[in-house]
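User: Predict the full complex structure for these chains.
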Amino acid sequence: MGMTMAEKIIAAAAGKESCKAGDIETVTLDRLMSNDGTTHLTIDMYNNLKHPRIADVDKLVWVIDHNIPADSPKTAASHKKMRDFAREHGITFYEGEGVCHQVMMEKHVRPGELIFGADSHTCAYGALGAFGTGVGCTDYLYAMVTGTSWLLVPETIRFNLHGKLNKGVYARDLILTIIGRISANGANYKAMEFAGEGLHDLSIADRISICNLCVEAGAKTALMEVDDVAMEYLKAHGREPKALFASDEDAVFAKVFDIDLSEIQPIVAKPHFVDSVVPASECEGTKINEAFLGSCNNGRIEDLRVGAEVIKGKHVAEGVRFLVVPASREVYKQALKEGLLDIFMAAGAMVMNPNCSVCWGACQGVIGEGETLISTGTRNFKGRAGHKDSYVYLASAATVTASAVEGFITTADKL
Amino acid sequence: MSDKFTARIWVLGDDIDTDIILPTEYLAFKTVEEMKPYAFSPLRPNLASQIQPGDMIVAGNNFGCGSSREQAPEVVKALGVSCVVAKSYARIFFRNAINNGLLLIENQDLYDEVKEGDIAEVTPGKEIVVNGKSYEIASLPDNLLEILEAGGLVKAMRKRNGLD
Amino acid sequence: MGKTLVEKIIGNKVGHDVKPGDIVTVDVDWCMIDDIMVPFAVQKFEEMGFSKVKNPDSVVLIYDHFLPATQVDDTRHFREGDEFAKKYGIKNVHRTDGICHQLMTEAGYVKPGDIAFGTDSHTVTYGCVGAFSTGIGYTEMAGILGTGQLWIKVPETIKIEIDGTLPGNVTSKDIILRIIGDLTASGATYQAIEFTGSTVEAMSVASRMTMSNMAVEAGAKCGLFVPDDKTCDYCKIQYDDSIKALKPDNDAKYSRILRYRAEDMVPVLACPSLVDNIHPVSELKGTKVDQVFLGSCTNGRLEDLRTAATILKGKHVAPFVKMIVTPASRKIYREALADGTLEILSDAGAIITTPGCGLCCGRGGGILSDNEVVVATNNRNFLGRMGTSKVQIYLASPATAAATAIAGKITEA
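Assistant: Here is the predicted structure of the three-chain assembly.
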């Protein structure tokens, strides 16, 4: 019987010929990412171990991205703990270089790898054919100490993409539409695999955006077959695949969806659930206080280009704060070279240092009581961006930027 | 001015700046009441809870230097501090204190001669007596006395606007 | 008898001669209210029972301390500011443009000879263009909003004369730190400072701002420079007779005169935790640092960023050391984008934040933890200002800061 891509990666990591959905396998991890959201807790637990050791320090990547620069003595103390530990043990360490998942894509992820990240959006790595999944800090610690972990092999839901997205419609509209359709727990424990000729037209940025958000449907991971586009990205970043896997023709899928990309429309996910997806036109006119273009979901150069094109020669609406946060230093520098940062600054946006920003809702532009944010971030949960009584709408870079210009939710074609 | 009163002394040093009196972190609280527990916290985290209404603060030179945050004198006043006696004050703090009706007294000797816990007997505009010794104190200029006597600048302005 | 610059500015405003010690009521040209103080000033204004703002066009609201917002209640300050501005017809509102003290001259408000008050102690900065400006509390600000006036006591003046050419690694920051060290943190309390001499005449307006900005750290009421053609270029006004008259008389009377030779100046630091605890950089050489901060209304201007970029070009911030760069305004950010400065700084590993007060005001922008050491270009190193009381803050020039970032320890540029 054929195997899915997820089964193949796990089998390889378990040192086996094959495995199937429902099996529990002991796997050797290829890479372990952790950020300042929880690493200080991991370190505390590590220091309480009887025989603390790190199985393979070269596999660890630690990133300070959630609260950078630090906004309180508390976050500064957890950063220091992380920095000191990384330094002492020789762990690959980034501080202020960007959102962890973007840094991982630019510098570390290789096709065929099995990666644990102490962050739910680790599923983004599927854009390069790697099995990335989010874990808590206890699981992380076990993997860090032993180099291994156990995994329930997931069933796979397959999405065959056909056709092309229309102009003004983005990957983000696509994945939010899918989440709206299958619901926030529609892929619980499962892998979401994307394939079909429609995939090949999507940029790596689009693919990351899609995979990254799959956890919002409950998925354990997201996967995409590696094609020429992915190989080019790897080459440009100086890396080779570990292994190239694809689902077999006769692989068994829990479900198969066929999606016509040309039918996707600009959408908005309304407060307070990612699957409260409606056509953007339904929210037209909703007043906003803040707009956010950034995050591991939508803070790449392609997204900034979209935003810059929308806002060029225009100005942010009076009283609206428009945060533009490149996802990494690489993105920041590219946007600087292309003149995009100046377009945003000239238009009255606040260009910030690469970090998680208001997507994480802690230190870079939190919103207050009764305020409304339109965001390219990952989540719109109640209180996610600041005050418990505030509202977050999720939309594409184009819709977010157009809304920043008008001061209310609108789409770019209406400007 | 008001009558004679007695006060227990808390002693602080030179250059007690406004970040010590109230760190920036707490400036956005809506009310001075919420800020109270954090007064003097960088220097003496427990002091705010130890100060009792009527107590006085004795300090060295340049008390209140630093920012113009009026929360600083307001929070001192809200703690119930009856007066501050220092060798000198930073000018913005001085104005802010008067405008909020917090009595400030300048004296060169007291700081060097008293210790924490001593009891002072204060006659505003005239003298402070501690451990049997009298320290002379000066009166304020007229325009400041007017504000103090009105009960602060807000009340003075209300009067001007015919409200009180 | 001759007049000092501050006596002339105040005298011009009240229409008669004034002398130190006089208490006069002045018409206020500019009121600056920053985001921290907006709700408090508004509340006091309403308590006072005013029904309108006397001169709405003289009022400037600037949101800078809480940008980007780090606490859920921060944006309330913006909201209340916006509502107040709308209700009373205040048109000058800067929501995301940079630090208040940078904007008050950069955006064309304060001009030579003006009298300005602000709800922040570094309002003294505008002395760089020959304006009398000083910090006040929000209650007094509320009073000015309603009446357009404030009483002031005419200050005595300390004259500081600096002549000669500065060594290459010495900036105006080193000079003002040295002066504060000599005067002490309370040495100029209630007084005006006048900065004169060939060294300051040769300085850019930006360098002068660094010095006027920190006059308050010696307790001064204001720190003044005689306006010249450079000032007028910066303010986009004519260098005419009225401006030329804004200078002290030769026989003006000073409470104190300090004279310095620029050639004697060396790079210095203000050591923890007092601004007047000044030591030569060479004495502290080798002290390990965890972070470097380049920014603030003291040293976040284009020339400061350029100085750092010149030193950092082709080099990299030391491993495990953070360098945080916070341009003082949107205009500066854009200029530094345009001339390649930000690219050099980013290549060197600096974290470039959005313009605002950043770390200087301790609400974000790189807060530190126990036993960490930071070299910063801002104006205050008070206990607990950038995190816990156990953070060691050294104040330095942008040149010293940049050299220190590369070495990871305190280093002379």
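Chain C touches chain B through 51 residues (CB under 8 Å).
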